[in-house]
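#structure-requests
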Amino acid sequence: MPSRSWSLPPASRNWNEVRQEGNIEGAYKPGNLGASVNGSVSSEPDYLSWAAGGEITQDLLAKNLTLQLGYGHVARGQGRCGRVPAWRRIGAPVAAGRLRPAALVLREAMTAAGVRALDFRCALPSDAPMRHPLFVAALALTACGPAATPAAAAPPQRAAQADAASHEVPPPPSPPSLLPTNHVLVRAGHVLDVRTGTLLADQLITVDGDTITSMAAAPVTMPPGDVVDLSKYTVVPGLIDVHTHLTGSPEYIGLRGLTLSVPRQALIGAHNARVTLEAGFTTVRDVGAPGYADVALRDSIDAGEVPGPRMIVSGPALGITGGHCDDNELPPERHAVGDGVADGIAAVQHKVRENVKYGATVIKVCATGGVLSKGDEPRTSQYSLEELRAIVADAHRLGRKVAAHAHGGDGIKFSVEAGVDSIEHGTFIDDEGIAAMKKHGTYLVPTQYLGDWFLENAERLHIPDYMLVKARSVMPESRKNLAHAFASGVKVALGTDALNARELGVYVKMGMTPIDAIRTATINAADLLGWKDRAGALEPGKWADLVAVEGDPTKDVTTLEHVKLVMKAGHVYKDERSR
């Protein structure tokens, strides 16, 4: 059968010029279009109709939208139109022969991206029957009028910088799943309900693709499907770490770190990503990497090239000249400058936009000095309040949350007043800072176990004296101040600097109950990331991310340091049940 296709003029507002030309070209504008599979035109506004079902998807990697109407060929691996990008489903599959307000879903996605029209072109497979043509349109984002990027075209979400603290940042896009879809039944001896803190006995979790579709008491006779038998284990949600540096290594602290190239750091990240996933952390927020090594790592994980958690990434952290996020080890004649260094309002705005341009999905800013940096003081603020406001305003307008490295009191207060979404470390937090964080709903990310590990391994790692002096004064102080913040009701999300589940035990020692500690790595962390509807709990509609452990983590949180099975997006990445 010869190739069949339809063509529409790119500026067309309807589907009334259908003709065979060997490819599909056209434009989609919400509100006046309909289409059916036999090439005729549906007059239903805001509806797409077809005979054999379909779905609407969003391309995440290239920030494009893709409209896919599937008619059986994709499932058999036929009829792909060139190289179809990775995408995620944003509209449910449509039942055969039914009208579905699919265009409404597409219109919402276009509105969120600031796009008013979509141009597309695609060839049809020669074996597609006329009554069931495979229509896969790779859609380039094109605004009506002059071309614009999604970021530039996005409607402003702030009237002024002063509104930064009250703005609700939209959630980051979900990473695509390139693995084959599957139907899996998980039989769990106990399931932890992290909201109530109760253990539900003998549960059956049904997984379709990357999503939990149901959870209920397990039947006597199991329904058909692949069964993962965890009847001897306790199942908890996949854990979330919101402060990692996967592309770094403690073996390269100080001057030795200057020997690392960006490609080498990306490869270190591939190793650490696998270790992190196998430790039970299915999602991380990576906050600071040179040369966008974290962006490359995320994209490689999303492409299925290396195993690892789904990642929200910052790229290079923003910092002042000579500050915590600058390169301060080399002598002046080297003129070394950190990737994220920016001074002044115009410069920090440019740096935020540059990071977004190159793939950052969160913005990291160094608001105070640090411990592992030369020539600065953790207690002192670095960016001014005005610079921080500019950073937050631009980041939020572009749909990115902001994480602020802040040890000292003024840096914490400036950051919270500017509207950041989380304070990282918070070592010298005081009552004024606690009150401000509670007022604005700002999360605290403590990173406490790192202090213990760092001092225990300082001699082996040949830590420079300037780091040790600061570490020995800062780290004990942080326990007292942060325990006070915990007791005062500040919202806490787990962050570890990539040392993962051992952080939970430290929180318990600082006064949290085990279930409250677990919540920092589940529902709290998911809320901070903007993914509370997709992660953080074992519930229908959420990602099929789960971890199996022996024992009861609500009594002994250290059981989460020894996971036996890890599932991410419905696929098992670690299985040590027989060991």
